[in-house]
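Please describe our next protein:
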Amino acid sequence: MARSFGEPLTKLRAVPIIDNGEPLVDPRTLSSRVAFAEKHPYFTEMKCTPHVRKSVAEMIARAADSLPEGLTLTIIEGYRPLAQQRWMYEQIKNEFATKHPEWSKATLHRVTNTMSAPPEDRCPPPHTTGGAFDLGLVDTKTNTPLDMISPFPMDSTSAPTERKGLSDEARRNRDLLVKTLTAAGLTNYAGEWWHWSYGDSGWALRVGAPHAIYGALPADTSPGE
């Protein structure tokens, strides 16, 4: 059940977790330049929330306020309950299995794990901690997402942040995203340009922190609206 892009599950599992107890916060309350997509673009039946841990919300707001005029930082999803993580993981695995019936079970698990954290692993899936979120940049005037993927489709082929062969426009937009969020203290999972976090096990591994500061939130956690 290896995880690629420099974050194998063996290393993630070894990261100690000392949860600091921060609550979930809606980052829209901290900046008028943070928006919420309301619906997931691919799992439309799934209920999403923009809520993240307090420090993460503050970083998101700081990043949004530093963007060039005319752009909005739009949250696709923040905190994700474990049951929802489990459902999404199975959806992605089934999609890969349908597209690639020639894959072995080991290959199917490995590739699925690069796109979705395994829900039953002892390393908490990032979104279940409230420290991770998915996002994009949107042109405020036209309400149009900036191009991050051309000439590729929006799937696993365009997902890696440093994907080679991007158009000049897509590369510029990704560079802006990376520069802005990194400056705010957030870190990126290199396998997905849209996935960023702070405080979870992935963050700790990327920055060399002695421990993660967010573990999985209890199953009955409700971010409120």
In short: The mean pLDDT is 91. The longest helix spans residues 82-99. Residues 10-79+129-207 form a domain with the Muramoyl-pentapeptide Carboxypeptidase; domain 2 fold (CATH 3.30.1380.10).
